[in-house]
Amino acid sequence: MEAETSSSNWTRWFWLFALLHVAVWSLTPILTAANGPLDTIEMLYWGQQWEWGYYKHPPLPAWIAAGTSGLFHDPVWATYVVAQLCVLACFWAIWKIVGDRNRPWVALVSVALLEASAFYNFTTFELSNTTLRLGTTGLTVLFLYWAITRERLVYWAAAGLFVALGLLSRYDHSLLVLSLLAFAVIHPQVRPLWKTPGPYVLIGVAVLLFAPHAWWMVENDFITLKYVQARTHTEPNVWNHLTMPVKFLGEQLGAISGMLIGSMAVLGLFWKWRSDLSAEDRLTRDYLLAVVAGPLAIAVLASVLTGGNIRSMLGAPMWLFLPAALFMCFERRREDPVTCGRLVAACGALSIVLALIIGVRNTVGTAMRGKHLRVDYPGHAVAAEVKQRWSHYSEDPIPVIGGSWWPAGNASIYTEYQIAVYPECNPAFAPWTNDQALTEKGGVIVWELPEVQPEVVDQWLQRFPGAIIQKPIEIAHVKAPDQPALQIGIAIIPPAGGVATESTPNVASSK
User: Is-contact 277 330, C-beta < 8 A?
Assistant: First the structure.
């Protein structure tokens, strides 16, 4: 009875810690970020179109962003909460797996130590493909673990669901899938499960759910894979086969160093491999090693073979179960509740301090830099001014806004109705619209000044002979009034056959 009471108390501490994280990292951007961050704005305008894919990424994060955007007064606030729910899913998965073979305070420490890595706090406040993949990674690992240890078809089906959802978030979820597949084929305690229906249920569910996106990829000439290839491409150089993987490993070591140092409170300064594990504990240990080391090994090997660049954030899902794996692999010198409780409290305090730092940066960063932070961009003001300029030519809503995707995306998101975004006026980036739609329905083209070169703007406008160039939009820096105003170029393309509804004092010239 005493053990049950103790476990129940630690469960309450887990939920207090996890929900505190969700509250702190949801409220920090809600209270201090005046504008949606870069990835979130992109997810929102993509998701409005409900496509089976987008030119950079699979569709799931954009769908979730668009589907939740109406829950609060501000279209971005819900995305902050959803992003932290993804982190909460990771916390819960770690808590359940580690708690299955360990005392509850060890499981809680395995969760809390994630706060010692930037991968799991201030880089997660925006809803992105990477953030969503954190959640799908945690749940894939948990449900497959339960499928292996409990051998119930419902867990195999759930694992297949999150395999598919992970791939619909980011393709690099395949690194985890390949690692777990190799584990299931090689490990002697798991290999007999291939004689049961479970693995085939997993595969069937995953293939069925991923198939529509796969068909979309074929229909769109594998544009997302080409984007991934471009992001990892480096100039041919024999040294890249060494420097690129070493660079990635160095970045990862920096990212996880806090977790490694924190683990010493439990493992001691010198770590000794555990040799006293039961068969069940060995299975859990080997599984966690496959989860952590497998994707890392595949990514590094691919970089060695191709010389390709691996971006640091690719490592974020790889290290979710690192503390858990360390505690299963090495002898614990101090795993008493008091030591673990203090370590959890220290991790919670660190998270709050980091949130305060980010909040201060969001509040005063523009004034310090003299340039708008993305989260301090005047998206509402841009949207209002674009809408006002359009109103001189049509009383109908703006159907399409093209040009530089950042001001266009902000204008779309912060207007009370949806505007189809035509990023960079490139049909490959927006299959939901094209030049003909912009010409016939009318719309707006915007561009960032002075970042976008005049020749690029000329190329855009030459495709729309009816475009009417306006005086640039100028918006003063509220937090940095002494700095030059933000300037955005703008041209109006009236609807075919349309006429101005009133005087147009903002016209600079017409074509």
Answer: no
Structure token digits, residue 22: 């969700």
Count of other CB atoms within 10 angstroms of residue 314 = 21
CATH number at residue 440: 3.40.50
Q: Tell me if 184 sits within 8 A of 193, measured CB to CB.
A: yes
Distance (Å, whole) CA 333 – CA 466:
75
Same-domain status, 42 and 135: yes
**Rounded distance between C-alpha atoms, residue 382 and residue 472, angstroms:** 11
| Residue 511 confidence (pLDDT) above 50 | no
Query: Are the C-beta atoms of 213 and 53 separated by less than 8 Å?
Result: yes
Residue 50 and residue 118 in contact, taking contact as beta carbons nearer than 8 Å:
no
Residues 302 and 418 in one domain: no
Q: Let me know whether 160 and 188 are in one domain.
A: yes
If asked whether residues 429 and 500 sit together in one domain, one would say yes
Residues 6, 104: contact at Cβ < 8 Å? yes
The residue from 327, 358, 389 where one domain ends is 358
pLDDT, residue 499, reads 55
Residue 422 DSSP class: E
pLDDT band at 52 (very low <50, low <70, confident <90, very high): very high
Helix (H, G, I), strand (E, B) or coil at 30: helix
| Same domain as 419, residue 313 | no
Instruction: Judge if 383 and 346 occupy the same domain.
Output: no
Answer for the pair 102, 324: CB distance below 8 angstroms, yes or no: no
- Phi, psi torsion values for 238, nearest 5 degrees: -60, -30
Q: What is the pLDDT of residues 381-422, one digit of tens each?
A: 999 999 999 999 999 999 999 999 999 999 999 999 999 999
In sequence order, the 6+-apart residues with CB closer than 8 A to the CB of 459 are none
Same domain, 149 and 269: yes
The DSSP string of 35-71 is S--HHHHHHHHHHTT--S--SSS-SHHHHHHHHHTTS
336 and 197 housed in the same domain: yes
Q: Which residue, of 358, 388, 421, is where some domain finishes?
A: 358
Q: What pLDDT score does 343 carry? A: 96
Q: How many domains does the chain have?
A: 2
CA atoms within 13 A on the CB side of 496: 8
Instruction: Report d(CA 223, CA 150) in Å as an integer.
Output: 40
For 192-241, the DSSP string reads GGGGSSHHHHHHHHHHHHHHHHHHHHHHTTTHHHHHHHHHH---S-TTHH
Q: What is the pLDDT of residues 256-266, one digit of tens each?
A: 999 999 999 99
CA distance 90 to 138: 5
Q: Which domain holds residue 346?
A: 2-358
Predicted confidence (pLDDT) per residue in 84-111, tens digit: 999 999 999 999 999 999 999 999 999 9
Please check whether residue 365 lies inside any domain of the structure.
no
- Asked whether residue 371 is domain-assigned, the answer is no
Q: Is residue 351 one of the residues assigned to a domain?
A: yes
> Where does 70-172 have alpha helices with state H?
77-101, 104-112, 129-150, 153-167
Question: Does residue 68 fall inside a structural domain?
Answer: yes
